[in-house]
């Protein structure tokens, strides 16, 4: 991710298979680069077999005449002539599991050498990193090379197969690399007078904009070492000679052009963006110039690869740097960027279906997803149907339509025509349900609304949960009837706060019930809107400021509007209850559904974001049987006449199925088990809530002078800074944590970013609140590193 330099052109060489001439052709490229006066660095990350047959020795042997211009090296060497994963096991024996380098160690070693060569290289220089075997040959850990090397994101040269079956092998390897996002700058293969694979492959790759070159094959290997050396040396001189075509040299020239083109494109992107793009949630008047544009070259795992904004005059510095995606890309990332399982799921459905219309039809991706969500997922025990739509906001539009119809149908005889049109919703102050008009109308007037906004409803002020000076506290607003002013109620632990059932008979629960009841009675007395649905963001109100609502309040609110305690019922009562779980659903906060913590389930719920791992947009609105039956009749006009061209998009549904499968596996992972244990109750028993963030870190930063309160659940960490003005338009959180934007490492020379390079942190703020969010599979090493960075930034501003 940081291997792009202006002065050092780096290419990785993959083979379509073993024995396709990868080392022969790489050596030819090395020689051609050196003959053009370049310093050339050749790296063989892993080599197996006898030393005299090693690829780096071959390169050294046939470049000795180039006056020290070529620098070959191998990082990991094993004696057995087998696949690297087997060679490593055979060398390490019984201790193999503990001593074989991990993928992270392997990639960091390669990246470290590239950085070293970049400092050593003259301007300009070339580097070639040659892999072992084919695209999917295993690395030392057993991960296939296509996946293991992906964090480096090196531009690639693919060596095709010129033998029988080589057309298929070459295309398959090419597609495997494309599916993982690799930039393939050239495809090379030997000429063969009989199979003539190049004749077929050249137009195939031309059509796809990929350069292909065929190179004359090497002479047969001779038994006499001296004669073989002379023959092979002559071959290399021939294919790099200007007099007879300079076949390898023409490829080198093409790679240089591709390198320059990539650098030029990255440098042009800020200005082109400012000239054409209108960003969401950005005040363009505050954008001062190209330096304010973040250019994302690629993304992998939890990190972006972005262009550096340094004013340094160092011509040998990397042009890219890793940047931690601190908001999980607007709360969407589930298992990190560019996860191969999700990419393959998308390709699988795209290849089978593309997109097919859905009314009165079905296909397996949609059916499997609906059954998973209704029967075994967040809808288990209460939902009857799944309705597909595009994103969270449109999913909420569907939910509102469902609730309003159900309410109007039941109370239709008591509602006039105008009253039906003015039905409102009951919600909480600070709520946000999306940017479509109907979803906006379900919220109070605010920064997210527009001129057409027509707030339809009534919003209660919720009590919130936070950690202040190491103490769990519930802030109860003064608007509650029993509290003359805002008060803080200390809690014994976070586990106690979310043990809702055992808090239902407390004085605070009774105060909540009284406040809700009196508020609704007062609304009715003054002729307020007829409320037809309760709409909640359960547990956390995200865009409103990462407000962690006291779960007891939301439970009491649901019970109050239903006129009964929790429990299953075939019919909704009071008014339909909608849970907007677009943000918190599907384990973002450590539970699949907020209902498990609240002890009560909705009549309608909406899931999105985490649902598809951030790869494609998709939303699902779940509904109970009684809600579904409100639209059930013989009259077409009474159906739910709502839909989108891409309803139940097969690609999105298949990606969602794969995402949920990966989440199921994560729930059994050692990382989750350890995180849950760290948040155990004081007596050591399991807490109903937990976080991937370390409890000692959270308590420590809550004691800092600059911090007003902190809160965390699951992958979410929210930090509210001291600010007299507050509000969404405040810049206080951005200013307080601005040090995170600097590229640095907290653990010596190597960082937790892919390749070990120093990294910056991309984070989002909501006025005086900064929040950080991981994927569900972010490694503890990365999270501890972010915690160190946040601690350092906050500590420096608190002094």
TrEMBL record:
Its main location: mitochondrion. The keyword Kinase does not apply. One of its GO terms (molecular function) is pyridoxal phosphate binding. Gene3D superfamilies: P-loop containing nucleotide triphosphate hydrolases (3.40.50.300), Type I PLP-dependent aspartate aminotransferase-like (Major domain) (3.40.640.10). One of its GO terms (cellular component) is mitochondrion. Keywords: Aminotransferase, Transferase. SUPFAM superfamilies: P-loop containing nucleoside triphosphate hydrolases (SSF52540), PLP-dependent transferases (SSF53383). It is found in: Mitochondrion. One of its GO terms (biological process) is biotin biosynthetic process. PROSITE patterns: AA_TRANSFER_CLASS_3. Pfam families: AAA_26, Aminotran_3. This is Uncharacterized protein. It comes from Cyclocybe aegerita (Black poplar mushroom).
């Amino acid at each position: 991710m940081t291997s792009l330099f202006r002065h050092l052109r780096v290419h990785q060489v993959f083979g379509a298979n073993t024995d396709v001439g990868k080392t022969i052709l790489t050596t030819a490229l090395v020689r051609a680069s050196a003959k053009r006066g370049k310093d050339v660095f050749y790296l063989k990350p892993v080599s197996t077999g006898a030393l005299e047959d090693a690829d780096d020795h071959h390169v050294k042997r046939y470049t000795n005449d180039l006056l020290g211009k070529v620098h070959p090296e191998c990082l990991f060497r094993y004696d057995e002539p087998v696949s690297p994963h087997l060679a490593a096991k055979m060398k390490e024996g019984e201790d193999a599991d503990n001593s074989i380098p991990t993928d992270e160690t392997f990639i960091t070693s390669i990246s470290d050498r590239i950085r070293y060569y970049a400092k050593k290289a003259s301007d300009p220089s070339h580097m070639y990193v040659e892999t072992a075997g084919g695209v999917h040959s295993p690395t030392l850990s057993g991960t296939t090379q296509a996946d293991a090397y992906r964090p480096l994101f090196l531009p690639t040269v693919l060596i095709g197969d010129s033998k029988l079956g080589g057309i298929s092998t070459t295309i398959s390897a090419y597609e495997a690399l494309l599916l993982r996002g690799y930039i393939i700058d050239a495809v090379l293969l030997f000429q063969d007078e009989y199979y003539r694979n190049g004749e077929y492959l050249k137009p195939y790759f031309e059509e796809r904009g990929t350069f292909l070159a065929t190179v004359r094959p090497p002479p047969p290997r001779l038994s006499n070492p001296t004669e073989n050396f002379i023959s092979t040396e002559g071959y290399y001189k021939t294919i790099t000679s200007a007099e007879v075509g300079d076949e390898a040299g023409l490829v080198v020239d093409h790679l240089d052009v591709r390198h320059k083109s990539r650098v030029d494109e990255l440098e042009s992107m800020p200005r082109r963006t400012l000239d054409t793009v209108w960003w969401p949630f950005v005040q363009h008047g505050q954008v001062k110039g190209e330096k304010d544009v973040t250019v994302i070259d690629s993304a992998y795992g939890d990190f972006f690869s972005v262009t550096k904004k340094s004013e340094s005059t160092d011509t040998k510095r990397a042009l890219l740097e890793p940047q931690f995606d601190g908001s999980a890309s607007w709360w969407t990332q589930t298992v990190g960027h560019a996860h191969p399982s999700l990419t393959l799921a998308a390709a699988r459905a795209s290849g089978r279906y593309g997109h097919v219309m859905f009314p009165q039809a079905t296909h397996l991706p949609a059916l499997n997803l609906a059954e998973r969500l209704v029967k075994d997922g967040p809808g288990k025990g209460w939902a009857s149907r799944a309705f597909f739509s595009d994103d969270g906001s449109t999913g909420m539009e569907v939910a509102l339509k469902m609730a309003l119809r159900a309410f109007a149908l039941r109370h239709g005889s008591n509602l006039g025509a105008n009253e039906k049109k003015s039905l409102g919703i009951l919600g909480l102050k600070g709520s946000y349900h999306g940017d479509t008009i109907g979803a906006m109308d379900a919220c109070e007037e605010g920064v997210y609304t527009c001129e057409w906004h027509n707030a339809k409803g009534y919003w209660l002020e919720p009590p919130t949960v936070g950690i202040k000076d190491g103490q769990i506290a519930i802030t109860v607003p003064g608007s509650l009837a029993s509290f003359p002013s805002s008060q803080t109620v200390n809690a014994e632990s976070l586990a106690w706060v979310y043990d809702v059932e055992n808090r239902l008979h407390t004085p605070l629960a009774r105060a909540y019930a009284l406040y809700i009841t009196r508020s609704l009675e007062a609304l009715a007395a003054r002729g307020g809107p007829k409320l037809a649905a309760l709409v909640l963001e359960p547990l956390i109100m995200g865009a409103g400021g990462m407000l962690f609502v006291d779960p007891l309040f939301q439970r009491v609110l649901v019970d109050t509007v239903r006129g009964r305690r929790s429990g299953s019922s075939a019919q909704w009562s009071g008014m339909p209850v909608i849970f907007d779980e677009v943000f918190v659903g599907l384990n973002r906060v450590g539970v699949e559904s907020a209902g498990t913590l609240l002890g009560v389930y909705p009549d309608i719920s909406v899931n999105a974001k985490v649902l598809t791992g951030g790869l494609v947009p998709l939303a699902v609105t779940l509904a109970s049987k009684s809600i579904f039956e409100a639209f059930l009749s013989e009259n077409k006009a009474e159906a739910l006449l709502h839909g989108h061209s891409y309803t139940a998009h097969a690609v999105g549904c298949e990606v969602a199925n794969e995402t949920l499968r990966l989440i199921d596996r994560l729930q059994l992972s050692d990382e989750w088990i350890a995180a849950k244990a760290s948040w155990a109750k004081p007596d050591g028993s399991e807490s109903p809530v937990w976080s991937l963030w370390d409890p000692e870190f959270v308590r420590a930063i809550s004691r800092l002078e600059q911090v007003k309160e902190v809160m965390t659940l699951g992958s979410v960490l929210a930090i509210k800074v001291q600010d007299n003005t507050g509000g969404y338009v405040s810049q206080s959180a951005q200013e307080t944590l601005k040090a995170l934007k600097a590229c640095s490492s907290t653990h010596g020379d190597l960082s937790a970013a892919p390749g070990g390079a120093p990294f910056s942190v991309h984070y989002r703020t909501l006025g005086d609140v900064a929040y950080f969010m991981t994927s569900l599979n972010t490694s503890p090493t990365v999270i501890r590193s972010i915690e160190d960075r946040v601690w350092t930034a906050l500590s420096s501003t608190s002094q």
